[in-house]
Amino acid sequence: MFNKSNLAVVGALSKDHFCKSVFFSKDGTLATDGHIAVSVSLPSSYGEHIKDAPLFGGRSATADIPEFEVDGESVKSIIKAIPKNGNFPIMRNAFVIEDEDGTKLVTTNGGAQMGVWKTEVHESYRPAMRDLSKYAPEGEPVFSVCLNGHLLARLTEILNKAVDNSYATPLTFSFWAKDKAIKVEAKNIESGQDITGLIMPYQK
């Protein structure tokens, strides 16, 4: 049972190279382009609600999820196929079924319409790549800053436009303390303009 949060990792895939599939397992979903990586665990209510999943062509959703991959374009289609609302929240998920043709991801709107997507053998994600904790720095961080994701997205979008969307131009984040404004700096190489932004930490 994978919800839209699980499927959102598709945004981390590259359009040009490296992995072009999302990795699915009993631990959740994972996607990477070699520069960024995002993983999302299964919903905490998974064990409680999987038993309420509908039947798909007479088959029950699989509770014991195997490891598999689904190409990025198919994952985007699955996101569109999942109902955005309705009386039955359980329908707002993609489910795993297994039949004589192998493992599949399926969706339903509760009526006659059912979406079916074939899965692939996991080849893009070596075992060492499937646990992001192995790649995170060890030990305690110097300090952690909580930021509002929407504000951070707005700020980086503005700065990226100001540097004329040059992929090669970095954004430099400077931190003083976890409760102080964070300064973000960049430079438009072509025009020589300095660009500065500030974002306040999220107050919990």
Order of helices and strands: HEEEHEHEEEHEEE
Mind summarizing the main beta sheet?
4 strands, antiparallel
Question: What's the structural domain tally?
Answer: 2
How far is it from the N-terminal to the C-terminal residue, by CA? 31 Å
User: Taking all residues together, what is the mean pLDDT?
Assistant: 88
Provide the helix percentage: 10-25%
**CATH-defined fold name of the largest domain:** DNA Polymerase III, Chain A, domain 2
Number of helices: 4
What would your notes on this structure say?
By secondary structure, the protein is of the alpha+beta class. The chain has 2 domains: 4-134, DNA Polymerase III, subunit A, domain 2 (DNA Polymerase III, Chain A, domain 2), CATH 3.10.150.10; 149-199, no CATH class. Helix content is 16%, strand content 25%. The protein is built from 4 helices and 10 strands, in the order αβββαβαβββαβββ. The protein has helices at 4-7, 46-49, 72-81, 149-162; strands spanning 21-25, 28-32, 37-40, 68-71, 95-99, 102-108, 114-118, 172-174, 182-188, 193-199. The strands form 3 sheets. It has a 4-stranded antiparallel beta sheet. The protein has a 3-stranded antiparallel beta sheet with strand order 5-6-7, covered by helices on one side. The protein is elongated. It starts with a helix and ends in a 5-residue tail after the last strand. The mean pLDDT is 88.
